[in-house]
Structures are given as structure tokens and as C-alpha cells.
Design brief:
Elements: E1 4-5, H1 11-20, H2 25-36, H3 51-60, E2 61-62, E3 67-73, E4 80-85, E5 91-99, E6 102-106, E7 110-112, E8 127-130, H4 133-147, E9 153-156, H5 166-177, E10 189-193, H6 197-205, E11 211-215, H7 221-227, H8 236-250, E12 254-260, H9 268-278, E13 283-289, H10 303-315, E14 320-322, H11 336-343
Parallel strand pairs: 1-2, 6-9, 9-10, 10-11, 11-12, 12-13, 13-14
Antiparallel strand pairs: 3-4, 4-5, 5-6, 7-8
The protein binds S-adenosyl-L-homocysteine (SAH).
The site of S-adenosyl-L-homocysteine has 18 residues, from β10 and β12.
């Protein structure tokens, strides 16, 4: 039988687990604090536990642990990109960005992705597997430890579709928010999704006020189907309805991401239709000039057309910003680095 990973258990679950092996639940709470606040990586490091308890725990459980494989430091800004090696040999990536208001981390939620967006490097070889809550958390812990910093914001915008790994992502949110752990406020966390409608409703019903970010990329269903296969399942109309429900439940402003791709979705007509569908919704549009991926034919738009798109939105009362490009020299776009690393066929086993 697989041993239980203590790092992936919420506070309630770890207390229950301790009871199930005949220990007091407050011992579970202690373990939780050591794992998620002190960020220790082995049962041996929980120095408040007796030898007997440690041995009993080792028979029943483990503490999962990811390792930094490489770190790439941007020379253009303070962005740092990390490649992590998981215990089963898989590789994931995360990005650290420094802003005036603090340090923000972009985390992966899956190894690969099965959403198939036509411009995204993460999805090129499909989904390998979901990350556990512990592996999502560990990206935070390892970066904090490596840089000796406390991070303030998290965006679930790395590789993977967070709502396609719903249960583990909810556990991650619960644990990272816990005051016995890192105590990161829900308002400092953003979850980005390509628009899995039923899960948006589920998330709204969780009563956690994280920022929801929708990868819309075009206001036209037919165009969206060409670049995002998920659009064949859920229409823009259904997504907007779910967003309205999310706003009603959480009172949070929604972000719509719009990756601008030259000649595909950057026309005046696109901007005008976007205004129509977003009118009256508590939202913000994040325009992202495409970060071109070698294997795809898509190009990034020139600066002028980005500005034009932006100003049409603004003039019509839609709040929008153009995402500041960070760490382009370290392949900071989704999944680019992992693929590059794997393609270079490096021997990671040694
Ligand atoms: N699966 C989630 C989160 C990961 S992708 C989602 O779809 O939202 C995070 C954002 O980066 C998404 O908006 C995605 O469409 C965008 N993205 C992916 N590849 C990109 C690229 N090459 N250039 C610009 N944006 C990209």
C-alpha cells in the first residue's frame, strides 16, 4: 500500500490521520506546522517527536519532496525560472517575479496539460499527470528557501489546467491559506482557467475569495474553437454566466486574459465584440502579447496593434492593462522551459 503523503493533507485531514494510527490529533497539528510553516522535508526533522513516534510515522507515511533541478535568472529583470524534479522523475516549472508590491510566484498544477490550446507549449504532449497538493505547495516552499524570502502572491498560471485537477488544487488553497502554514490571503491568490464551466460554479460555491482569471482570448465562439479545443464543450455565453455567478458569490472582480496573436484575434472587430460581451461585468482585461513558441506558426502582434486594441477597450469603459513582459530571456511562457529541457535530452537521473 502507498504511504500517506503528510504534505498533501489539510489540517483536518492530518489530525484525522493521526487519530487513525492511534495518536493524538494535536500531534497532527504539530506535524502540520512543521511541514507547512517551518517547511521541513523529512519526518526525522520534526524534532518535537520522540524516536518511537518518528519510527511509527515512517512505517505509515512520508513527506513528499521536490528538488530544484535548475534555476535560470533573467538578465533583463528579477525574474527567476525554476525547473523542479519530482520524485517520479517528472519535471515541472515555476516562475518567481519581483514587483514593487512583493514577490509573486507562478505555479504549475499538472505535468503537461490536456486542454490542447494551439499556442501553448505546456500542452504539446498532453497530460502526464496531476500534481499532488504537496507538489504544488513545495514549489512555494523550495523557492522561499532558495531565495530566503517570503512570497506574497500566487498565480496558478503555470503548466496545467487547475480546474482539471480540482480536488488537489482546493487542498493546496486550503493549506497555503492556513494560518498554521504560510497564511497567504485568498485575495493574494489568482487561479487561471481556460473555462471549465461546471468547475467555475463549484469554485464559486467553495466560499474562498480568490481571484478568478479566465483565458478568453477571443469573443467569438467559432474562432475560439480553432485555438482552444475546450471551446467545443463550453460556449462563451456559458462562461460569462458562470463568471457572473462567481462575482455574485465572491464579490471579486474577474480577470479576462486575452493573448493577442497576430492576424488571429487582434482585429478591431474582436475588440468591439469583446466590449459588447463584457459590458457591465465587474472585470479587468489582461492583454498578453503572444510569447511565440518555436514549434507553432503563430506570431506576436506588433506594439502598435497591441496599443490600438488596448485603447479601444479603455475608450469604451473596459478596464484593461497590457501585461508587462517578464523574463523573456528565460523562456518564461508556460511550459517552454520544461520542453526545452526535455528536448535537449539532458540526463536528469544522475
Ligand atoms: N490552463 C490555465 C492556466 C495556465 S496558462 C489557463 O488556460 O488559463 C496561463 C495563461 O497563459 C493562459 O491565459 C494561457 O492561454 C496563456 N498562454 C499560454 N501560452 C502562451 C503563450 N505562448 N503566449 C502568451 N500566453 C500564453
Amino acid at each position: 500500500m502507498d504511504k500517506t503523503d503528510l504534505k498533501s493533507l489539510t489540517l483536518d485531514e492530518i489530525k484525522e490521520f493521526y487519530k487513525s494510527i492511534g495518536e493524538k490529533s494535536f500531534r497532527g497539528e504539530q506535524a502540520f506546522k512543521w511541514i507547512h510553516n517551518k517547511m521541513i522535508n523529512s519526518i526525522e526533522d520534526i524534532t518535537v517527536f520522540s524516536k518511537g513516534l518518528k519510527n511509527k510515522l515512517k512505517d505509515n507515511c512520508t513527506i513528499s519532496n521536490i528538488k530544484i533541478l535548475e534555476r535560470y535568472d533573467s538578465e533583463l529583470d528579477d525574474t527567476k525560472k525554476y525547473l523542479f524534479l519530482l520524485e517520479d522523475g517528472n519535471i515541472i516549472e515555476s516562475v518567481m517575479m519581483k514587483y514593487k508590491h512583493g514577490i509573486s510566484l507562478c505555479l504549475s498544477t499538472q505535468v503537461g496539460c490536456r486542454m490542447g490550446c494551439a499556442f501553448c507549449a505546456s500542452t504539446q504532449e498532453g497530460l502526464v499527470r496531476n500534481l499532488t497538493a504537496g507538489e504544488i505547495l513545495d514549489q512555494v516552499y523550495k523557492i522561499q528557501e532558495d531565495l530566503d524570502v517570503k512570497i506574497s502572491n500566487i498565480v496558478l498560471m503555470g503548466s496545467g489546467e487547475p480546474l482539471d485537477n480540482y480536488d488537489n488544487v482546493i487542498k493546496f488553497l486550503n493549506i497555503i491559506h492556513s494560518c498554521e502554514g504560510q497564511n497567504i490571503g485568498y485575495r493574494h491568490i489568482t487561479l487561471s482557467t481556460c473555462g471549465i464551466v461546471p468547475k467555475i460554479y463549484d469554485l464559486a460555491d467553495e466560499d474562498i475569495s480568490i481571484t478568478l482569471s479566465i483565458s478568453l482570448h477571443t469573443p467569438f465562439d467559432e474562432e475560439r474553437k480553432k485555438i482552444m479545443p475546450v471551446a467545443k464543450r463550453y460556449s462563451i455565453n456559458e462562461i460569462i454566466k458562470a463568471c457572473k455567478y462567481y462575482i455574485q458569490k465572491t464579490n471579486r472582480r474577474i480577470t479576462f486574459e486575452y493573448t493577442l496573436i497576430e492576424g488571429v484575434n487582434d482585429s478591431t472587430e474582436n475588440a468591439r465584440e469583446l466590449i459588447k460581451i463584457l459590458k457591465g461585468i465587474l472585470c479587468h482585461v489582461n492583454l498578453i502579447p503572444l510569447n511565440p513558441v518555436d514549434e507553432f506558426r503563430y506570431k506576436d502582434p506588433n506594439k502598435k496593434s497591441v496599443q490600438k486594441f488596448h485603447s479601444i477597450l479603455e475608450k469604451n469603459g473596459i478596464n484593461a492593462t497590457v501585461r508587462k513582459e517578464m523574463g523573456r530571456d528565460v523562456n518564461a511562457a508556460c511550459g517552454q522551459l520544461r520542453r526545452k529541457y526535455i528536448n535537449e535530452d539532458r540526463n536528469i537521473a544522475k
